[in-house]
Amino acid sequence: MNTIAICILLGSFIFLLAIKTPISFALLTSSVLTSLYLQLPLMSTMVQLVKGIHSFSLMAIPFFILAGEIMGQGGISKRIIAFTNVLVGRVRGGLAQVNILASTFFGGISGSAIADVSSIGAMMIPMMKDSGYDADYSVDVTITSACQGLIIPPSHNMIIYAVSAGGLSVGKLFLGGMVPGVTLGIALMIVSYVIAVKRNYPKGKKISLREALKVTADAILGLMTAIIIIGGVIGGVFTATESAAIACLYAFIITFFVYREIPLRTIGKILDNSLKTLSMVLALLACCNVFGWLLAYLQVPALVTSALLGISSNRIVLLLLINLLLLALGCVMDMAPLIMITTPILLPVTQSIGMDPIQFGIMMILNLAIGLCTPPVGAVLFVGCSIGKISIEKVTRSLLPFYFAMIAVLLMVTFIPQISLFVPNLLMP
């Protein structure tokens, strides 16, 4: 064990984060400093940098990002909101239920919590405020329900985890997120309904059968994107990467030649936005791979495993400790780098106590999704507060019931394996 090298790697990384260095630069700088101390050839470090993004599975990420961007700007979010209003809009606090269910459907298309808040939230938060809902409640519902997009397939974060875990089945991960994602949505709908009754929020208007059928027919083409992706992967028609490319082509045709709400010339802006997002994701993946390689070289995963098992050999205690660690890290770091960094460290611990890698992946992603709604580095929280024109402090206080619901679902995923494993074991044994 090289204690000094470990201190250089982790200490420099934490210091650079503390002085607000971009996380990609912090990862790469700490990795280079450690390599110099260990007198490792810098060429080896650069090779690991390239290997971080040299994977066929990762090719799905740019296609999913582009498909989500096309559908987000092409009118699909408006149609999803209209469709969910038909389903749940008439109950007390109906717009909150519409918001959550719309995020469930939109998550199956974009796979991005930020995209969800930016599109669904941009319409729903002002609509809810105008209808008499409090601003904090409107933002609470929007940002917590947006986290479903990270669990409900397709999710590019699941692809990142699959690669970090050594090449797990992306299809099984997609299926593993279906029941937890729906469970999270139901839990949030229950909490939002209780609060809506307590605050006496209004019900939605009654919609005629003719109008409901028209809205459903208009929305079904957009919702087919998720069906194509999941159905194709489950049926073995194509791989996750191929499904992403097909979904991208389908989204392009539906948006520009069927819905036709935006002109074809906007494709340049869409490609530009997608490229900006993709460049950040790939830079993180490359730098995280170097950092993870050095962690493995210094045997940090084995040290962490020994340390946790030294605290307790009880499975429940260890899983609670891992959840607390991930929740704490999720409050101060973004999701993608945390998946890349913590997977090789914590996965061996969970496997040693009998947890399936698919279940651990869903647990980790749900855990880190909660971090996106928490200060000080909750990206989804910041976007939601910006749209709702409300302070983060006020929203954080009112989020407590929603936090409890999300943590309750997290504990269910952690201690009830079949929630994550029933569907993949049934459809992809």
Strand content: under 5%
Tell me, rounded to a whole number, the average pLDDT. 84
Biggest sheet details: none
Order of helices and strands: HHHHHHHHHHHHHHHHHHHHHH
Number of helices: 22
Point out poorly predicted stretches: none
Helix content: over 70%
Number of strands: 0
The shape, in one word, is globular
Q: Which class of secondary structure composition applies to the elements?
A: mainly alpha
Radius of gyration: 22 Å
Distance between the termini: 40 Å
Describe this protein's structure.
- The chain is mainly alpha-helical.
- The chain contains 22 helices and no strands.
- The protein has helices at 3-18, 23-38, 42-51, 60-73, 76-88, 94-110, 113-130, 135-146, 156-164, 170-176, 178-199, 209-234, 240-259, 267-297, 300-311, 315-330, 335-352, 357-371, 379-388, 392-398, 400-415, 418-427.
- The protein is globular and about 70 Å long.
- 48% of the residues are buried.
SSE blueprint:
Elements (H helix, E strand, L loop, with lengths): L2 H16 L4 H16 L3 H10 L8 H14 L2 H13 L5 H17 L2 H18 L4 H12 L9 H9 L5 H7 L1 H22 L9 H26 L5 H20 L7 H31 L2 H12 L3 H16 L4 H18 L4 H15 L7 H10 L3 H7 L1 H16 L2 H10 L2
Condensed summary:
The protein is an all-alpha fold and 429 residues long. It has helices spanning 3-18, 23-38, 42-51, 60-73, 76-88, 94-110, 113-130, 135-146, 156-164, 170-176, 178-199, 209-234, 240-259, 267-297, 300-311, 315-330, 335-352, 357-371, 379-388, 392-398, 400-415, 418-427.
